[in-house]
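Morning F.,

Quick status update on the modeling queue. The single chain you submitted on Monday has been processed. Sequence for confirmation:
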Amino acid sequence: MKREEAVELILDAKRAKGIKWSHIAAKVGKSKEWVVAGCLGQMTFNEEQAKAVVEYLGLPSGISEVLQIPPYRGSLPTAVPTDPLIYRFYELISVYGTTFKELIAEEFGDGIMSAIDFKMNLEREPDPAGDRIRIAMSGKFLPYAEY
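Structure tokens below.
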């Protein structure tokens, strides 16, 4: 089975059961953000985690094996995203990326924020003018090495 097929089966089962990602994450024992990334094919589950997803969603056991294979990450279908929500993140980085870079350099020095040693939390922020989306990202600082 291909990863894309496994992802579609996961999404179909989630919709059919009417459950939230947080329910699946509770069964896996990890954050909803990391579990969603894994279910969408961007992270590698260990055997226990993959089996928890498959059993909870009532999926064929072959999907468990697919979820344990290291993925080809960052696999959006186009260089510039066409999905409106994903495009807004692209736009956000286009507008504020240099600001992030400048402030990180000032605070930490010349380096990058890891997307490997990384945590994320997404939550609803109630607001009288319309609810907002709060996303906190935390990545390890990795300085450029001299050699």
